[in-house]
Amino acid sequence: MYEGLRVERCHHLQRICLEDVVSVDKTDEKSGWSVLQHPPYSPDLSPSGFHLFGPLKQHLGGKYFSDDDVVQHEVLLWMRQQPKQCYAAGIGALIKRWDKCINIGGDYVEK
């Protein structure tokens, strides 16, 4: 299949799928935060960076990148431009969700 794409539709191989490139980075130890393990089978307890994916997808939408380095540069540039309150809101929402999970004994509850 790859060979067929390479020959007949080589322009598709130059595109990079954003879902495969964008990943959630682990918290830097310098921040002083404790990295908590994500509870298994709790779709309501998304990682704290989840609230960034929609706006980041909108920012990157319709753009094509020649390689991974260009994508990573664009994502880092976008993240640096976000106000600190944006990140604080994500952490605050995660705290509320984890507190809810603890209070209900770890059971999943629909919103």
UniProtKB/TrEMBL annotation:
UniProt GO MF annotations: nucleic acid binding
Gene3D superfamilies: Ribonuclease H-like superfamily/Ribonuclease H
Transmembrane segments: none
Protein name per UniProt: Histone-lysine N-methyltransferase SETMAR
Organism (species): Araneus ventricosus
